[in-house]
Amino acid sequence: MTLKLEQMYEMQKALDAKIIKEKGLEGQNLLPNTILALQVEIAELANEWRGFKHWSNDREPRTAIPSLVKTSGIDIALEDGTYLQNPLLEEYVDCLHFFLSIARQLEYSADDLCVFEDYVEGETGLLFTELLINVGYLLGDKLQIRESEKDFKAWQKQHFRGAIYIFYALGEQRLGFDFEDIAAAYAAKNEVNHERQANGY
């Protein structure tokens, strides 16, 4: 059974609550760190996509890397005892974890994570750049950008929805992931993240 986006949102809330409690982070503004973490993960996703590396002969996305050991929850076990890793999908779901965490911190509902999907125009590399810009705007400088808190929150939500729209389009239209792939990989990585916390990560 495929997870729904609402279920992933609730799973992320539980993971975030566990981390906040175990790390003693109650009452702290974690949004700047989470936004930076998402930007780092987007850059790592672009690195695994590799399409922007015009200087390299190796520009194929990293979607099937053989490994002797299992390194993540989404690795596929092969008959010979080795594993097949998909770093591109793993980085994508790492991004999804942080998108869900940001939505929680901004007190958005699961419905705010749903956007109308249409084909996105433009080169894939430019979409990555636009995604990074929209995520960066989530912090903004509300004193200079908007006159009131209400205006700032509307402006912030507009950029969040723009970012998540591009993110979904990248995954499905450019990187070849369907929702079932994403949901299964999210669940597996979420489990790994809980295990990491239990083991003092």
UniProtKB/TrEMBL annotation:
<dbReference type="Pfam" id="PF08761">
    <property type="entry name" value="dUTPase_2"/>
</dbReference>
<protein>
    <submittedName>
        <fullName>dUTPase</fullName>
    </submittedName>
</protein>
<dbReference type="InterPro" id="IPR016947">
    <property type="entry name" value="UCP030140"/>
</dbReference>
<dbReference type="InterPro" id="IPR014871">
    <property type="entry name" value="dUTPase/dCTP_pyrophosphatase"/>
</dbReference>
